[in-house]
Amino acid sequence: MRYSIGQVAKKLGLTTHTIRYYDKEGLLPFIRKGSSGARVFEEDDVDWLIIVECLKRTGMPLKEIKKYIQLCQQGDETLQTRFEMFQKQKVKIEEQMSTLQKYMEKINFKIAYYGDAVKHGTDDIYTRNKWLAAERERLFGHK
Amino acid sequence: MRYSIGQVAKKLGLTTHTIRYYDKEGLLPFIRKGSSGARVFEEDDVDWLIIVECLKRTGMPLKEIKKYIQLCQQGDETLQTRFEMFQKQKVKIEEQMSTLQKYMEKINFKIAYYGDAVKHGTDDIYTRNKWLAAERERLFGHK
DNA sequence: TATACACTTAGAGCCTACTCTAAGGTTTGC
DNA sequence: GCAAACCTTAGAGTAGGCTCTAAGTGTATA
Q1: Which domains does chain B carry?
Q2: Residue B10 burial (C-beta neighbours within 10 Å; 0-12, 13-18, 19+)
Q3: What's the gap in Å between the CA of A28 and the closest CA on chain B?
Q4: pTM
C-alpha cells in the first residue's frame, strides 16, 4: 500500500505542512517522489513517521531525532548507539511520568482546597495552601 | 522569611530573567518592591510561583495561567471557576500520563528490537518493527 | 574606599516548531 | 475540457517562551 502526504497527515493527526517541514529538515530521508513530484509514502515510511512522532511527543527535539536518522543511515556499526539512545529516552519518559505524578499531587491539593472553598463560599485562610507551605519549607529548608 | 529574586530563582531552578519575564507578563501581581526597587518575595509569593511552575510544567500556556490569576483577584465569585479549572488540568495531566504510557510501549519495542539487533550484530528484517506494522495497520485499517 | 556582586529597566534577539501564502503543476470525474 | 481537489516549491510570518544586553543603582565586605 502507498499513501499520499494528505492521507498520512490525516491518519497521524499532522498537517501536510508539518510533514513537508519534517522532510525539509531531513527527518524523512527515505521518501521517494512519484513521476509528478508528489511524495509517495510506503508502509516503511509511515512506520518511520510514527517513530518520529513518538520521539517528538516524548520531548526529543527535532535536531536530535535527525541525529538518530543519521545513525540509522550509517549502518550496523551504530546499532549499539541507537540501542542506548532508546534506553535514554525511556529513562526520560520515566522521569516525565514521575514529574507529572508530583505535579498531580499539587493539583489534587488545589482541587481539595477549592472544593472546600466552594463549599464554604470563601477562601479558608486557615487550611490554605498547607501543601505548598510544606513544599516551600522543603526547598528553603526551614519553617 | 523574605527572599530576593536570585534566591528564589536558585531554589526553583529558574533564572532571574525568567522570573522577571513572568512578572512583566503579569504572572506575579502580588510581588512588592523594597526601598531600592528590588522585588521582595514573601513566602506566599514563593508558594504562588510554585503553582505557576506546576501549571506551566503540566502544559498550561502562560496566558491561561494569567487568566487564573485574574480569577484569583476577582474574589470569591470565581471560586467555582477556579475549582473547575484545576479539575480540567487534572484531566489534562491524566491524558498526558496515558499518552506517555502509550509512547513508552513503542520505545520498549524499539529497545527490544535494538537489543536483538546488537546481539546479532545486524538489523533483523524478519522481526523488524512488528509493533509498528501493527500500529500502522490499526491507523490505516488493513493489512 | 574600592571592588564585587547583587539588583533594576527597556528592549532587542533567539530558538523551536510550526503555519501560511503565492504561484503553479497534476489527477480525477463529469 | 474544465473544475475540484489534490500535489509541488520557496520563502515569509507567527507564537511561545525565554535569553541576553546595556546602562545604571544599591549593598556588603576587606
Answers
A1: 5-74 (1.10.1660.10), 91-140 (no CATH)
A2: middle
A3: 16
A4: 0.90
